[in-house]
Design brief:
The chain is an alpha+beta fold. Helix content is 29%, strand content 26%. The N terminus is likely disordered. The strands form six sheets. Strands 3-2-4-1-10-9-11 form a seven-stranded antiparallel sheet. Strands 5-6-7-8-12-13 form a six-stranded antiparallel sheet, covered by helices on one side. The chain has a four-stranded parallel sheet with strand order 17-20-21-22, sandwiched between helices.
Length: 461
């Protein structure tokens, strides 16, 4: 994915990936179910690639998993060896059919399918070098760039070629590669992008989140280590530590917003982490009010934790229309305004005449917060106190999240009081960086929180 920024209010994760090596199993069905579980990580496109041992079969398209795979189609009776799947959330200008993944290429070592979550900060530089050498690109994805580099490497074993190519990459990545007879998963040296290893019966699986394992009936084994390559074939699973073990820097927004509540990251359950964030927020930023509510869905756990800690009732003050997909909201102000009205509606009988505390995970541009506050006041709320379960977002992300530019980040150049006046809340307060890290159980050295601190863990950010 190229380094451009989507003008959206909420941060958006780049992709979700899944892989399975399971001869004679119903690979298409299993992979499709896993992609349903990972749908929250990307709604623009979906795809599945399956190897039958001789050939890789690919089907992908634009839209949700249910739209791309209303049935298993040509995969219905395919007896496969291994498969990979992908769901994608694109940045502006890259939401095109040719950018849907997995990407399938054919070169001197055979066929190779690639699925990628993350962003390479030196992609433009590497692409320009290859183009000057005569390479022709069909997409704007980092996946195709990596495929070109692997094809040029010329090493005997594919895993050796991949290891060589990884040394040129800067940024975040969780790659899953599929050949005719092998499944390979790799994670960036700092572990910014998540990737987990599981087992389905006697077979191994890989996924961006553990919720995919639960959906297909697999057991979680462990997180793939930062800088590790996992190779799975008929001989079993083996591991190569491509890069020396370095401090992990998992994207902190995985805990705050991206990951599903039932997923576990680094041994921590996401729902429980969000609840602790809400409790810590209540300790740091209490307020006299009547009820607490949360912005569905990512802030519900934090809102319940805040309510319990402060001793106020938690109420469903906002209802989400779950049949309006994220893709409905387009990158224009008018469409964003329409989207908020269609997606979220206040429960008038709950908030009318009440002093309401509303919990949200973050404020990016401020437009959504402004409209939520306005909706609650129009529904009769007496006061609207906005509490944010993270610090102000002050810096763009270069590692796979679609953030606005620095100029568009309201927290980068406005004080808390200025933001409060702009969005119209009775009061506004954020969770401190220290409180966020302690509630999650991390240190500043064990997570990437560059969006909050401006401290980037990888060269090039």
């Amino acid at each position: 994915m190229q380094n451009k920024f989507f003008r959206a209010e909420h941060l958006k994760e780049a992709c979700g990936v899944f892989g399975i090596f399971a001869p004679q199993e119903e690979l298409a069905r299993i992979t499709c179910y896993a992609l349903y579980a990972l749908q929250h990580r990307g709604q623009e496109s979906a795809g599945i690639a399956i190897s039958d041992g001789d050939t890789i079969h690919l089907e992908k398209g634009m839209g949700l998993v249910s739209e791309v795979f209303p049935s298993l189609g040509k995969f219905e009776h395919l007896q496969g060896l291994a498969a990979i799947g992908h769901v994608r959330s694109a940045v502006a200008g890259t939401n095109k059919p040719e950018n849907a993944q997995p990407l399938l290429v054919r070169f001197h070592q055979g066929e190779l399918a690639v699925a990628h979550n993350g962003n390479l900060v030196n992609a433009k530089e590497l692409r320009q070098r290859l183009e000057l050498d005569g390479s022709i690109f069909q997409t704007t994805t980092d996946s195709e760039l990596v495929a070109h580099l692997i094809a040029r490497c010329g090493r005997g074993e594919l895993e050796s070629s991949i290891a060589d190519v990884l040394s040129y990459l800067r940024g975040s990545y969780a790659f899953i590669f599929l050949t005719e007879n092998k499944l390979i998963g790799v994670r960036d040296p700092r572990g910014i992008s998540p990737l987990s290893l599981g087992k389905l019966g006697d077979h191994f699986v890989l996924a961006s989140e553990t919720c995919a394992f639960d959906t297909v009936g697999a057991d979680f084994l462990r997180d793939v280590n930062p800088g590790e390559m996992v190779i799975i074939d008929r001989e079993g699973m083996r591991s190569i530590q491509v890069f020396p073990r370095a401090r992990s820097a998992l994207c902190i927004f995985e805990y705050i917003y991206f990951a599903r509540p039932d997923s576990n990251l680094n041994g921590k359950n996401v729902h429980l982490v969000r609840k602790r964030l809400g409790r810590r927020l209540a300790q740091e930023q209490p307020v006299e009010a009547d009820i607490v509510t949360g912005v569905p869905d990512s802030s519900i756990a934090a809102a319940s934790g805040y309510a319990e800690e402060i001793g106020l009732p938690y109420e469903v003050g906002l209802v989400k229309n779950r049949y309006i997909g994220r893709t409905f909201i387009q990158p224009t102000q008018a469409r964003r305004d329409e989207g908020i009205k269609l997606k979220i509606n206040p429960v008038k009988k709950i908030v009318e005449g009440k002093r309401v505390v509303i919990i949200d995970d973050s404020i990016v541009r401020g437009t959504t917060s402004m409209r939520l506050v306005s909706l609650l006041f129009k529904a009769g709320a007496k006061e609207v106190h906005l509490r944010i379960g993270s610090p102000p977002v002050i810096s763009p992300c270069y590692y796979g999240i679609n953030t606005p530019t620095y100029e568009e980040l309201i927290g980068a150049h406005h004080s808390c009081e200025q933001i409060r006046r702009k969005i119209g809340a009775t009061s506004l307060a954020y969770l401190s960086r220290k409180g966020m890290l302690e509630a999650i159980g991390l240190t500043a050295e064990s997570a990437c929180d560059a969006c909050f601190s401006g401290e980037y863990p990888i060269w090039g950010g």
